[in-house]
Amino acid sequence: MTASTSSPRATGAAVSGVPATRLGPSFDLTAPPAPAAPAPAPAVRVANVSQRYGRGPLVLDDISLDIAPGEFVCLVGASGCGKSTLLNLIAGLDRPAAGTITTPGAGAAVMFQESALMPWLTAQRNVELALKLRGVPRRPRATRARELLDVVALTDAAHKRPHELSGGMRQRVALARALAQERPVLLMDEPFAALDAITRDLLHEELERVWRATGCTVVFVTHNVREAARLGQRVVMLSSRPGRVAREWRIAKTEGRRIESPEVAALSVEITRHLREEIGRNAA
Question: How many CB atoms sit inside 10 A of residue 142's CB?
């Protein structure tokens, strides 16, 4: 049999141990890099939004903000800067005077500072109510309500009424009820403000765990700068009225943070400094 006389150069094989890709451009067999995947559409898009009530002064002025799917964004700012107003606009509870807001077709679930549970219903029945409004049949909604109470570690409290629960437990029921709506966006307006520090810290852990498990997009309004630094992947600061996006911080590593973590403390100091400067400018 005649031996093959083909040259290693011609076949793209290695010569003296040198890979073919180093023999010159005409013999580079490396595939071209794949084009970068396009960025996903924002879960929430706020485009040039302004808001005023009647003939009153502007509350929000030309705010633009994109929030990615699965992102956890915290809104901070001085009292009266329009944080809750912006959240209500995203929720569709009000319409902006100018600009547009785009959210997923399935809409958003809202969790307020007060749990707003029905006092005559048990914890499970309060969660079932949200499922009933979605048209879930009785037997499946009872099963799903128990599953959601388990998610927020309240299985043992399923048959208790709100007056039998602590403030933190009521907020957990409210969170389970919000999750029962199965909306891709969860809007939270200072949900832990009325709780003591230890309970709030425990609920931070619960919320982070639920957020990572569900992959939902969270927009979280708070006056507590350290809470924002603890929870958010991004912290957006609004200016004093009229509210504008004044500054934002992106946090690269969010896993493993605690309220007492050094990185949370450092970011809190920085945000507080800028917030004080903003309030000082408005007061001058």
Answer: 17
